Amino acid sequence: xxxxxxxxxxxxxxxxxxxxxxxxxxxxxxxxxxxxxxxxxxxxxxxxxxxxxxxxxxxxxxxxxxxxxxxxxxxxxxxxxxxxxxxxxxxxxxxxxxxxxxxxxxxxxxxxxxxxxxxxxxxxxxxxxxxxxxxxxxxxxxxxxxxxxxxxxxxxxxxxxxxxxxxxxxxxxxxxxxxxxxxxxxxxxxxxxxxxxxxxxxxxxxxxxxxxxxxxxxxxxxxxxxxxxxxxxxxxxxxxxxxxxxxxxxxxxxxxxxxxxxxxxxxxxxxxxxxxxxxxxxxxxxxxxxxxxxxxxxxxxxxxxxxxxxxxxxxxxxxxxxxxxxxxxxxxxxxxxxxxxxxxxxxxxxxxxxxxxxxxxxxxxxxxxxxxxxxxxxxxxxxxxxxxxxxxxxxxxxxxxxxxxxxxxxxxxxxxxxxxxxxxxxxxxxxxxxxxxxxxxxxxxxxxxxxxxxxxxxxxxxxxxxxxxxxxxxxxxxxxxxxxxxxxxxxxxxxxxxxxxxxxxxxxxxxx
Length: 512
What we know:
The protein has helices spanning 5-17, 92-105, 221-236, 258-279, 296-305, 311-323, 330-336, 341-349, 370-379, 386-393, 401-413, 418-430, 434-440, 448-460, 464-476, 482-509, and strands at residues 19-21, 35-46, 49-61, 68-77, 80-83, 87-90, 113-116, 123-134, 143-151, 157-166, 194-203, 242-252, 286-294, 357-366. It is an alpha+beta fold. Helix 5 (296-305) runs antiparallel to helix 6 (311-323) and helix 11 packs antiparallel against helix 12. The radius of gyration is 43 Å and the shape is elongated. The chain starts with a helix and ends with a helix.
């Protein structure tokens, strides 16, 4: 059972550092001052019982010849009270009476210890006391007191004192599993001395019918054109960036012939490229354009997401698009379906969104120093390489807020690359997020370089058989860390067996 600092302090108090001097008791008029001293060694739960372990010292006790002194622990909580076996000190005559009654009746009073004060003017005895009482649920909040009572020759008890000797009982606590931690090193990702990056976006340029001329004042064209400029300026502001090229891709809606729409999209892409060259400072940047014709994929997406079109109509439109080739009358079937109402709806509401242009800015970024990495991370983390994320993560304590922010951004920018996923898994492992660590490794179960990490992650997840399986696979490939994993796993399995046994006891006798 794991014991924290507060519990340890209380146990020490229960273990005897507190010595209780019980109130002096005047048994008869001539009795001198006497003491009962109690040292509490332990008061604890033992399975389905409570054990009280004390050292009791009776000093200078005088007991009348026909009387008895009873000393006994009492467990108390509110109206509940249970007495443990007493220590009995009998006077000379009373001891003889007790012995005679027991012989005649055969009934023996249950006591922990019995002493005769015969021949002792002042009784002095040191007693090591250890007794148990059945466990009851109310005892969770109980304290333990030491009681003194006097019994006269008529068998009448007179209460003398009751002093608390322990303010709580030490109950069995749920056992704590050892953290099964296997050593792993954060893999160093490959460096990118020159990083090639792209920035992409779309501009919804409106053209007059059959025309490719750029008209900034038409509809929302000014704002759409400004998107491209803003993207270029945003890239230029990043330290050390060199823009290499801007590529324009244009699309057309399906009305008209395929050949006509392909040529129209090419003309519009070239027109937008020329407009950018004439209106922005793009010196030294290569511009290119390409037309892709009718955007049927875009139309499928718009149909699925449309909030107005009934589901039955959506299904039929998607069926026609999926099963009929463009050159086999796809558009004609759409125009004929539902007496043309669905086609007219798409022509008015969906087709304009297909007349779009996409742009891609390609640029290079140099490798940064750690100080520049920190600055770029705040505003444009996609400019960093996985190696730079690795350098940045090492600046922070694993599990800290800054460390986790680095993990989240790196995982977003490098979601699929194998070395990235292993690195992200170790990052999460170091942050004590084992479920995230294992999630990053999904799909890499047959990759030898990932096996040592599977071993560590499964061990931390209390899956020691899986941890051993992957450690053995890693060892078979010559991984030098696998032997250490296997030694630790063997030890952890023994720890786990002990934990499971303690857990069974706790579940059977625990009070929670």
